[in-house]
Amino acid sequence: MGIADRKARNFKRREGDILQAALDLFSEQGVEFVTIEMIAEKAEVGKGTIYKHFSSKSEIFGSLIIRQSKEVFAFLSKIRTDAPIIVQMKQVLRLFWDMNINNMGKYAVFRKCEQLLVMDDLTQDVSAAFTKAVNEKNRRIKMLIKQGIKEEIFRDEPVENLAAAAVGLVIGVFDIILAEEIKPSEELYSLMENMILKGCMR
User: Fold this and answer.
1) pLDDT tens column, 91-120
2) 117, 61 in Cβ contact below 8 A?
3) Rounded to whole angstroms, how far apart are CA atoms 44 and 67?
4) What is the pTM of this model?
């Protein structure tokens, strides 16, 4: 391995260390209250090193969301695309539920990062990667719904409307759980799943 390759690998590793430090601090102290200085101390690097990797706190938010999206896509890739569309939809919903219910603190961090992220503060590369991740998530959701419409299982409604209703219901349920207005349970999951699927069906 050449010097340039080693430097690139070390740069990438340090970037990962900074993101992990940020995620840990966000989980422990709240996204709004963590400063760049605190992240630098936790990652055991200088403040200037942080800015070599990220132009702003928003860019850390965006990079964390991009990293999380890659984890989700890796799980989604295990879902069999030749399974009946209802089975696929149930698997996607179950995956999202289990992944987040088992770590609500992490979900709360990503949700807050989404809310506080300022797109204008992102560099072109991170902005492009963030937009790509969001578009890919939307594409996969719409692809499932389109297949359901094609098979005449789902309503022949605009795909965007069905996708927005399904995603909105899921996020709404999780926001209510985060607000501690209700506790997560299998009964709640089953109700959410049934409302989404039956709402899409003819």
Assistant:
1) 999 999 999 999 999 999 999 999 999 999
2) yes
3) 21
4) 0.86
